[in-house]
Amino acid sequence: MLNFLNRWRRRLRPRLALLALLAGLAACETTKRGFPEVSDPGKDAEGADIGTMNSPSFLVGEIAEGKVQYSVPREKLAENFIRQFNDGTVVDKAMIRKIQSSPKDKPAYFLVGLGLNNGMFRAMALPLQLSTDNSLYLNSAAERYIIEGTGCQFCFFNFEKNQIVGTTCQDGGSNTCDLTVANHNTFFPAAPARRSE
């Protein structure tokens, strides 16, 4: 089993590098479109108090000097993705991805997990809220964008105006990457790691 996982990881690494490159290129092709920006650490984009909303928010990272600093270990994020998929998908890569149409536009951030299920590519992306103190929060009401590859070894999220609008299969041809959008998540089922006051 350990040899299988090691071989799988070795095969996935070059694809992840390609994903990072293509995601960067896709980000350059997008334009800004009202991505929810938190105007106050304790409020969402519409001004509702995060602390009193039915959907709690969980701190996952912070932006410091333009770089993402994880507040939750990436290994724990991968475990939470596995639990969130809840279908046998093995996630070995979890990251926070920045999508920005141009340097003058405000970026959007997504929590992304990549893995395999029965040899087929799987991925999930969850939009994050950026507060004025540069903290990144995942709200349990945030959508789940789920990719399932059908004959495709590697799939990409397509972005338009900083939002996920579809998928592309690396292999092309008749292979496909199906996108499903779910209305909420249970990524952090326990008490929030930190809730903004």
Describe the model.
The chain is an alpha+beta fold. Helices cover 20% and strands 38% of the residues. The chain has 2 helices and 11 strands, in the order H-E-E-H-E-E-E-E-E-E-E-E-E. A 5-stranded antiparallel beta sheet has the order 3-4-5-8-11, with helices on both faces. Strands 2-1-7-6 form a 4-stranded antiparallel beta sheet, with no helix packed on it. Strands 9-10 form a two-stranded antiparallel ribbon. The longest helix has 28 residues, at 2-29.
Keywords:
single chain; 197 residues; alpha+beta; four-stranded antiparallel β-sheet; 11 strands; globular; disordered C terminus
In summary, what is this structure?
With 197 residues, the protein is α+β, with helices and mostly antiparallel strands. Helix content is 20%, strand content 38%.
End-to-end CA span = 45 Å
Indicate the percent of residues in helices: 10-25%
Question: Rough shape?
Answer: globular
- Unreliable parts: 16-52, 192-197
Quaternary structure state of the chains depicted = single chain
Rg of Cα set: 17 Å
* Derived structural class: alpha+beta
N-to-C order of helices and strands? HEEHEEEEEEEEE
Biggest β-sheet strands, sense, barrel: 5 strands, antiparallel
Would you report the number of β strands? 11
What is the strand content?
Answer: 35-45%
- Count of DSSP helices? 2
Q: What value does the average pLDDT take?
A: 76
Order of the strands making up the biggest sheet: 3-4-5-8-11
Give the secondary structure arrangement, pairings included.
Elements: H1 2-29, E1 57-64, E2 67-70, H2 74-85, E3 90-99, E4 108-117, E5 120-127, E6 129-130, E7 135-139, E8 144-150, E9 155-160, E10 163-169, E11 176-182
Antiparallel strand pairs: 1-2, 1-7, 3-4, 4-5, 5-8, 6-7, 8-11, 9-10
